[in-house]
TrEMBL record, chain A:
Record's subunit section: Heterodimer of an alpha and a beta subunit.
One Pfam family linked to the record: ETF
Record key words, sorted: Electron transport, FAD, Flavoprotein, Transport
Chain positions recorded as FAD binding sites: 201, 227-228, 241-245, 258-265, 279
Cofactor, free-text remark: Binds 1 FAD per dimer.
Protein name: Electron transfer flavoprotein subunit alpha
Record domain Electron transfer flavoprotein alpha/beta-subunit N-terminal: where: 3-181
GO molecular function, a single term: flavin adenine dinucleotide binding
Similarity section: Belongs to the ETF alpha-subunit/FixB family.
One annotated GO biological process: fatty acid beta-oxidation using acyl-CoA dehydrogenase
UniProtKB/TrEMBL annotation, chain B:
Family note: Belongs to the ETF beta-subunit/FixA family.
Main function: The electron transfer flavoprotein serves as a specific electron acceptor for other dehydrogenases. It transfers the electrons to the main respiratory chain via ETF-ubiquinone oxidoreductase (ETF dehydrogenase).
Cofactor: AMP
Organism classification: Bacteria, Pseudomonadati, Pseudomonadota, Alphaproteobacteria, Hyphomicrobiales
Listed name of the protein: Electron transfer flavoprotein subunit beta
Keyword Electron transport attributed: yes
Electron transport recorded as keyword: yes
Residues annotated as domain Electron transfer flavoprotein alpha/beta-subunit N-terminal: 23-211
Matches recorded under PANTHER family: ELECTRON TRANSFER FLAVOPROTEIN BETA-SUBUNIT (PTHR21294), ELECTRON TRANSFER FLAVOPROTEIN SUBUNIT BETA (PTHR21294:SF8)
Length: 314, 249
């Protein structure tokens, strides 16, 4: 019985979600190997080898894995399948793309976005935009699992696993990479930020995000998020979207500004430790989940809040 | 080129669902049902490709109870040509759905299959990827832009951190993200016309696919509720609470 954790990384280094998914993978009770598939990904493999409890790191270094294409990556994981009973990956866009393909190649059902390991074959996962929690028991011999990392603590360093090179699998040659547009952002990534400041339709323009919300985020060292309404209106780029169809986050502090609190948005943030809502509509549903609510015009309250924080030396 | 669009009947996205007290599931009796929103986007894209002369026919397929015919009819009124209903009273998991769809693909021979990226009831986000694997086709999930380029498809995908563009060799599978398009409303004349469009109905067990669930649902519960919060009177009080009571800043 061995578990294979597939690492999320940017080739040079590991991403925080990998450390969190490792915690879930270890709870299956079997030794955990980590697969790093990428191009010039030795740095990420070294980082994985240092994580506590990792038995072995497999490094598949090939241009075929440079751009997150599903077909070659699924073929690689499948080629490693005989040695493993469970395949675990963080539920990032990369692995939401590839893991169901792996599951079908193995003729098993994937268990999507688990929030708890009840037993090695039994898991909790949210359904209906987080409005119900389902406990499912997998009858499949091999398990394919994606992990909602916001509910697992990160595993720290303390290991020294060997790194082994593994051969690339044959590339089916079905797709090719054309290009990418990466949003420029010096702030913490949403999925690992300790504080998130998020804006909704009430922000009314992209310029207001820049003028009101971003200075507050910078003061707090926070990531910036947005509701779907704000993204659809063009006030914020789509990779800022928090919700059922965007990112699911669980920071220590989530500040929702000008966000009404639709079901789909709450699905993405209601596991935050402390939620603050600033909204001029005192009846907005966001106040039902907020620990601290301020009924106020955001154009006055947000600059005031930024200033108050400045006085505290932030 | 024929385009196949699988569609699912789900609880309407505006409904606040209720978990049954005995843990046996979500109460779906007398709840408003609609087409999964991502599937509407898939139909819209297929119909636009047909209007642009890039597709010859748009075929819808749904797997579910008799009422799923209404979902197909909704899609026909948006401009799709005909429908296939695969009858199953019991819920069917994504893997079995993908296997049933593979059988339909073998009969219909589409050049492109467009699916929603996920259904808003089970939130699995699996079926498109699984179907691509079973067929050995290329896949582009979470599409925000789709262009037909001869025998290839150029697709821009929404990924963590931004956008990625890939080129797929056809036939291929694309799953839709929210920003791919704005689905049209069916007009009254089109709703009338859709009533005459054909829907073929077949029993799911005719396909020889094992429909037994691989995931046994042990129970369904309400998520833990949050403690009621407080309203603060001003920014100073908010900052003080965050600092001294919650200890988060």
């Amino acid at each position: 019985m061995t578990t294979l954790l597939i690492a999320e990384h940017d080739h040079a280094s590991l991403k925080d979600v990998t450390n969190k998914a490792l915690t879930a993978a270890a709870q299956l009770g079997a030794p955990v190997d980590v697969l790093v598939a990428g191009e010039n990904a030795g740095g990420a493999a070294e980082a994985a080898a240092k994580l506590k409890g990792v038995a072995k790191v497999l490094l598949a270094d090939s241009p075929a894995y440079a751009h997150d294409l599903a077909e070659p990556l699924a073929a690689l994981i499948r080629s490693l399948a005989p040695g493993y009973d469970a395949f675990v990956a963080p539920a990032t866009s990369r692995f939401k793309n590839v893991m169901p393909r792996v599951a079908a190649l193995l003729d098993v059902m994937q268990v999507s976005e688990i929030i708890k390991v009840v037993a090695p074959d039994t898991f909790e996962r949210p359904i209906y935009a987080g409005n119900a929690i389902q406990t499912v028991k997998s009858r499949d011999a091999k398990k394919v699992i994606t992990v909602r990392t916001s509910t697992f603590a990160a595993t720290g360093d303390g290991g020294s696993a060997p790194v082994e090179a593994v051969a690339a699998a044959a590339d089916p040659g079905l797709s090719s990479f054309v290009g990418e547009a990466v949003a420029k952002n010096n702030r913490p990534e949403l999925s690992s930020a300790r504080i998130i400041v998020s804006g909704g339709r009430g922000m009314r323009s992209r310029a207001n995000f820049t003028k009101y919300l971003e200075p507050l985020a910078d003061k707090l060292g926070a990531g910036v998020g947005a509701s779907r309404a704000a993204v659809d209106a063009g006030y914020a780029p789509n990779d800022w979207q928090v919700g059922q169809t965007g990112k699911v986050v669980a920071p220590d502090l989530y500040i929702a500004i000008g966000i009404s609190g639709a079901i789909q948005h709450l699905a993405g943030m209601k596991d935050s430790k402390v939620i603050v809502a600033i909204n001029k509509d005192g009846d907005a549903p966001i106040f039902q989940v907020a620990d601290y609510g301020l009924v106020a015009d955001l154009y006055q309250a947000v600059p005031e809040l930024t200033e108050e924080l400045g006085k505290l030396g932030r | 080129m024929k385009i196949l669009v699988p569609v699912k009947r789900v609880v309407d996205f505006n409904v606040q669902i209720r978990v049954k007290g005995d843990g046996s599931g979500v109460d779906l009796a007398r709840v408003k049902m609609s087409m999964n929103p991502f599937d509407e986007i898939a139909i819209e894209e297929a119909v636009r490709l047909q209007e642009a002369g890039k597709a010859t026919e748009v075929v819808l397929v749904s797997i579910g109870p008799a009422e799923a015919a209404e979902t197909i009819r909704t899609g026909l009124s948006m401009g799709a040509d005909r429908g296939i209903l695969i009858r199953s009273e019991a819920p069917v998991e994504p893997l079995a759905v993908a296997k049933l769809l593979r059988a339909v693909v073998e009969e219909e021979g589409p050049g492109l299959i467009i699916l929603g990226k996920q259904a808003i009831d089970d939130d699995s986000n699996q079926t498109g990827q699984m179907l691509a694997a079973l067929l050995g086709w290329a896949q582009a999930t979470f599409a925000s832009k789709l262009e037909v380029d001869g025998a290839y498809f150029k697709v821009t995908r929404e990924v963590d951190g931004g956008l990625q563009t890939v080129r797929l060799k056809g036939p291929a599978i694309v799953t839709t993200d929210l920003r791919l398009n704005e689905p049209r409303y069916a007009t009254l004349p089109n709703i009338m016309k859709a009533k005459k469009k054909p829907i073929v109905e077949r029993a799911a067990d005719l396909y020889g696919v094992d429909l037994a669930p691989r995931l046994e649902v042990l129970r369904t519960t309400e998520p833990p509720g949050r403690k009621a919060g407080v309203k603060v009177k001003d920014v100073a009080e908010l900052v003080s609470k965050l600092r001294n009571e919650a200890g988060v800043i």
